[in-house]
Amino acid sequence: MASYIFLTTEGYTFQPDADSKVPDIENLQVMGFSAGGTEDQAFRNLLEECPYLAGTTFDEFFCYRLSQGYERTRRDFSLRGQS
Predict the structure, then answer these.
(1) pLDDT at 63
(2) CA torsion, points 41, 43, 49, 54, in degrees to nearest 10?
(3) How far apart, in whole angstroms, are the C-alpha atoms of residue 27 and residue 46?
(4) How many Å apart are CA 27 and CA 35, to the nearest integer?
(5) Residues 70, 3 contacting (CB under 8 angstroms)
(6) What is the mean pLDDT of residues 47-75?
(7) Across the beta sheet with 2-8, what order do the strands follow?
(8) Which label site among 6, 21, 46, 60 has the fewest CB atoms less than 10 Å from its CB?
(9) What does pTM read for this prediction?
(10) In the predicted model, is pLDDT for residue 52 greater than 90?
(11) CA–CA distance from 65 to each of 37, 48, 73 (Å)?
């Protein structure tokens, strides 16, 4: 079975300082992670594992297949820590 990340372009995110003059960032929303033999099966599994998604106003999702061992490839970054 392959692992997938499911995302949507619907919605937007507020910055931590909502009073900022900088506009909110257009971005992707991570809807969840799931596994399946195909993308379709993984999507069905996602909906079974996260039934609350059906109660949201999100509609259009897309996914990417994640490589094996993707969990070990995480790297963290900080804008404030840059020189």
Answers:
(1) 97
(2) -140
(3) 21
(4) 24
(5) yes
(6) 94
(7) 29-36, 2-8, 62-66
(8) 21
(9) 0.80
(10) yes
(11) 11, 19, 15
Which residue's entry shows tokens 């897309």?
A: 62
Q: Can you give the pLDDT at residue 18?
A: 67
Mean pLDDT of 35-62: 96
8 A C-beta contact, residue 15 and residue 22? yes
Confidence of residue 60 (pLDDT cuts 50, 70, 90): very high
Greater confidence (77 vs 3) lies with: 3
Q: Which two tokens stand for residue 72?
A: 């070990």
For residue 33 the two structure tokens come to 């992670």
DSSP 7-26: EESSS-B--SSTT-SSPPBP
Residue 63, Cβ density class (10 Å: 0-12 exposed, 13-18 middle, ≥19 buried): buried
